[in-house]
Amino acid sequence: MKKALVAAILGIALNVASSHGQGYIAFQSYDLVGQTPIFSGVTYGPGSGAKTGQYVGAASGFKADLLYSLTGAPGSFTLASGSQTSFYVNGGVQSSDGGSPTTDGAGIFIGPTLIIPGYTSGPVSFITEAYNGSSYGQQGFYNGQSAVYTISSLQTNPALPAGTTLNNTGTTVNGMQPFVVTVPEPSIFALAGLGAAGLMAFRRKK
Amino acid sequence: MSFFGIFYRTSLVRRWRNWRCLKSVQKKFKKALTVNLPFGIVPSHTVTYKQKMRTKTLLLSAAALAAGVLASQAQSNVFSANIVGYVTVTNQANQYVVLANPLDNGTNDITGLLPTAPNGATVLVFQGGALQTSLKNKGNWSQNFVVPPGVGFFYKSPSDGTNTFVGNVAGMSNGIPAANNILELVGSPIPFSGTISDIGTNTLNLGVLPNGSQILKFVNGALQTSLKNKGNWSTNLSISPGEGFYVKSGADTNVIQILNLQ
Lengths: 206, 262
Description:
Strand content of chain B: 25-35%
Helix content of chain A: 10-25%
Order of helices and strands of chain B: HHHEHEEHEEEEEEEEEEEEEE
Oligomer: heterodimer
Number of strands of chain A: 16
Order of helices and strands of chain A: HEEEEEEEEEEEEEEEEH
Distance between the termini of chain B: 11 Å
Shape of chain A: globular
Number of strands of chain B: 17
Largest interface: A-B, 25 and 27 residues
Structural class of chain B: alpha+beta
C-alpha cells in the first residue's frame, strides 16, 4: 500500500513537472549584431534552372516551419506549434527570388517565439523546413530541410528574452545553417513508380 | 468647476503656449514646478532618473484644454481636456530595458513610438505567454506591434540612445487590468512615478494589489521579484515614467489610477 502510494505521488509529481516544463526559442534566420547582419539563407537547389543558387523570396510563397526533438533521435522530430512563418517582408514589400538577405530580405525569415513543450533542461535538436506549398512536402512545390542542429539549452522563463534558432556567438552562427529547396523532377516520380510496380510484381511471383 | 478655477488654468495655459522648444520647456518647467502649480502630477515627472533608465517627464501644454474650456463653457457644462506631454527614456547599447508607453500618440505602434530606433534595434512584446520579437531592419520593423498606454515591452538597441514618447495623457483615470495569476507586462498608463506601495490619487496605486501578488522588474538582465504578503511588498520597488514591469495579481484586480489636476 505504501509503495503504491509513493509511486502514485511520484507519478503525479512527474506528470506535473512534465506538463509545466517548456522552453522558448525565437524562430529566425536573420539578426543584426550591432549593425552587422548575420543569417542562414535558403536558396534554390540544383535542378531549379535559372534560379539555382538564388535566394528564395516571400513573393514566391515561401514559408518556413520548425521541427524539434528533445532526444535528437531520427523519427522523433515534431512540428512546433505555430511555427509556420512567411519569408521576409520589409515594410509591406515582399522579398523576391534573386534578392538577398541584406537587400530585400530574400532567403531569410523572422518568425515567432515558439514554445517547446516538455522541455526542462539540456540540449534540443531542431530542423528548419522551407517550402512554397501549403505545407512541407507538398508535391510539385519546392521543399527543403536544414541539417539537424542542436542548441545546448533553451530559455525556460517566458518573462525573459529567448535565444534564437541562429544560436549565434557574436557574428558566428552555431545553430541553423544555410540549406536549399528543390522540386523533385517528374522523372524521379516516374522511376519511383516503376520501382514500386516491379516490387509488387516480384512479391506476387514469390 | 468654478469660474475661478477655469480662469486660473487658462491663464497658466496661455503662458505655456509660448514655449515652443522642448529644451527650453524643460528648463522653464523645472523652475515652474517649484511654484504652486495646479497639476499635481508634474513634480514627479521632472525627476531625473540616473540608474537603469533616466526619465524626465513634462506636461508640455494644455492649449486644447484652454480652448476646449472656453469654447464649450459658452454652450454647455461639458468640456474635454487634452494634456500633451512627453517622457524621455534612455538605453545603453546592446542591453535590454523594459519600457512602457506612457502617452497616447494615436497609433501607438512601435514605428511611431520609437522613431529614432536604429537598424538592429529589437522590441519584444509579451503575447500569448511568450515574448515575441520585432527587429528593425532596413528602416522597418519586422512586426509593427501596437503598444497602447499601460503596456510594457523590452527594447534593445545596438547603440546608446534616447527616446521621447510624445502624446496625450491617456485620460484623467485609467487602469492596469491585472487578471488573477496571469503574468502581464505592463506600465503605468498615466505617467506616474513612485513605488509599488503607493496608494491613492496621483500615484501608481499599485498598493491596491492583493496579497499574493507579484511585481517583477527587469534589473541588470534579471528579474527582481517583489511579493505582497500581509499587506506589504517584500521589496518596495520604484517605477519611473515610461518604465515597464511584470505584474501577476493574486486576484482579478483593476488598478485604477486617477490624475487630479487641482
